[in-house]
């Protein structure tokens, strides 16, 4: 009787020590993650700012010098126009251009910023949060409607993207199961890595390289780098607005072109969400687990401790399914377990 009591006390003491160790480890990870984020904001971002200053600063100065020389040359050739009158005219032109109306003759005649194609493209940039900023509503009613569209359309669009990306993920799991059959049980993590590489290769080729080549041919003044830059800035929803498809005054088939651009943005964003979700599903490549760990079961599993028994080899069932060792054992036993418990048919 005394022996059983002593054994129980010893087990409880061992569990308490493991619990204290896990709590201490979680706190250390939280502090380390906070330090990483602090370094990111205090060192990395200012370094990026200085880098952009060094690259773009001289180019801006050259543009200012060229503009100043062009202005002086224009005044020298048009002596009847004073510098103050030219300044007032340029202020009107710039203010009108900032409101989305071009001062160029070919652009201002016979073309509307609010045709069906342009309006569809504008609505797409609002609900996808790209927001190029070149075209914007001018009336109070239009601004109010834009607010309503953003508040309602953005959550619905994100929901649609998430559901569609989940459907693509279910299909991709069949490819992952097929790839695992080509790797030995102790190399199953390589199959998952190859699967992820194929997804991002498809993203690069089908949604960046090939569309960039198409836009470079369709846009008269764009180089391939300009078109590739537009694709990256758009699909990452940065939307700087310096390059926008279909804005040339002499663009042919503008309506069809704008619809094509809308379809490209929707499909590209959906595939990007799918690719990012696939990346996050690989625990070995997810940097968040090295910074923060809110799930104690996952933390215990990664450090090979079990709180309830004080022995190694514990952890949640989901973490076990995601670990490379379990993938190998599943394949060796004849099963085909997908990430997060999906079977070979892509169904949980």
UniProtKB/TrEMBL annotation:
Keywords: Ion channel, Ion transport, Membrane, Transmembrane, Transmembrane helix, Transport. One of its GO terms (cellular component) is plasma membrane. Residues 311-348 are annotated as: Disordered. Its main location: membrane. Pfam families: Ion_trans_2. One of its GO terms (biological process) is stabilization of membrane potential. It is found in: Membrane. GO terms for molecular function: outward rectifier potassium channel activity; potassium ion leak channel activity. Residues 321-334 have a biased composition (Low complexity). InterPro entries: 2pore_dom_K_chnl, 2pore_dom_K_chnl_TWIK, K_chnl_dom. It comes from the Eukaryota. Residues 106-169, 204-281 form the Potassium channel domain. The chain crosses the membrane at residues 35-55, 114-132, 144-168, 192-215, 227-245, 257-276. It is a multi-pass membrane protein. Belongs to the two pore domain potassium channel (TC 1.A.1.8) family. This is Potassium channel domain-containing protein. It comes from Macrostomum lignano.
